[in-house]
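During the no-cost extension, the postdoctoral fellow (Dr. R.K.) reprocessed legacy sequence entries with the updated structure-token encoder. One reprocessed record is reproduced below for audit purposes.
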Amino acid sequence: MKLAAIDIGTNSIHMIVVKVLQKRNFEIIDREKEMVKLGAGVFSTNRLSDRAFDVGLDTIHRCVQLADKLGVDDILTAATSAIREAQNGEAFLNEVVRRTKITPRMISGKEEARLIFLAVRNAIALEDRNALVFDIGGGSTEAVVGNRDAIAFGTSIKLGVQRLLDMFDDQGPIGEEARGVLEAHIRFLAKQPLKRAKQIGFSQVIGTSGTIRTLGEATYTLKHKQSLRSVNAEVIKVKDLQALTDRLVDLKPDKRAEVSGISDKRTDAIHLGGILLVQLLQMADVKELTLSDASLREGMILDYLERHSQDVADFPIQADLRHRKAAQLVHKYDANWDSNCHIAGLALTLFDQTQQLHHYGDFERDVLEYAALLHDIGQYLSFRGYHKNSRYILERANPRGFTDEEMLLIGHVIRYHRKAHPKTKHKKFKRLSETHQRVVWVLAGLLRVAVGLDRTQNQLVETVSCQVSDQTLDITLSGTGSLELELWAAQDNCDVLAKALDRTVSIQIAV
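Re-encoded structure tokens follow.
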């Protein structure tokens, strides 16, 4: 099995291609890296620059082409802080999908921290001792405390070299006063995370990422007058790192490149990374830093293998082709299969009990079921607009076993299961026949209510009973625990169904 992992970082876009050997063992067979600096200016303008947008797309496209030529089975992609915070970040990811047919995952800072720790834990023997891991990126610093068995604490701090560079807007030497302001800013933002980490306790601090590895290698070379063959598990002294940082701070960018171990592509902000790292280590009250060459990319691979190796045995095997394809898509895009099955069951119950109003049969019932099973796979791309993303993914996945008409309607029902009502001013909806438009109204209305009935994703609503009159549709719920959130969510989403069935819809909990 071959896998590719693409890290769309604030500083660099980096891909590794691996050959899987065992559950936690793989061999890196190829790499591709480009210092795109997507985050340049993002933290002051809130937008990816046109240059970064275009270069980023070209780089990712090149990575995907290489991965395809190497015959990978799957391509994993994660976008971090620059994409999270840029107003046009989602537009960038949508363009990635359009050009490459892969679906990038915009991960949270907390998830980024978790994946980084998985990689470090797999590269350095932690045993049962807690370690504090730092990863300094372009837009954020991830801090995680954990051991070989579990993560005790993980967070993302809005401190990164590109973010700090945007604050200063000057790549040159930093004066004493400006450095004092910067250090105070770092201590302010890192105070609570470091306090929490120290409360939990750790016996070792590990640093990873390009910035930390560059500083670590340069520190080692400056101290020992020779370069490292392998960064992983090497240790540097904080006092030696501080000496390097003091030197970098006083130099102009072109002179920083003359320091052994500092590449010319990092000279604009490496001094800021040094100040940040020294402050973090001083706040952690440690005198040494262990270096690691593991990173987010390796964490993505390990997470994939962990999830898939478990799911091979535990994920329900579907005998029916269409259910099997739906299950594979739900699994691939990290949706909740149990919750979606429950929602599908509720939707079908509502469909059956309102059949005297809509008069639909097995064809429409199947469309509703698969729309319910697949309604939220677009969250893998982003939560914002995930109903549209879900349809987008389905249009490109084109799972076997479904007719074009079924896929067309399933996509539209998913598109309108939340947010805007179906409208003829929407171009794709307008192109549907009047018959299909009414199907979408009814099925999307039913799905909206069903999704609301599992608002907490705990499958609390066990039964649904519908009573139909000339003017009303009364829906009664029963189940376990408090159903107030489910009731509120369903009531808040019953307007489309009310219009489609020409009835006033009321929902209540059985007494």
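The radius of gyration is 26 Å. The chain has 22 helices and 14 strands. The remaining legacy entries will be reprocessed before the final report is submitted.
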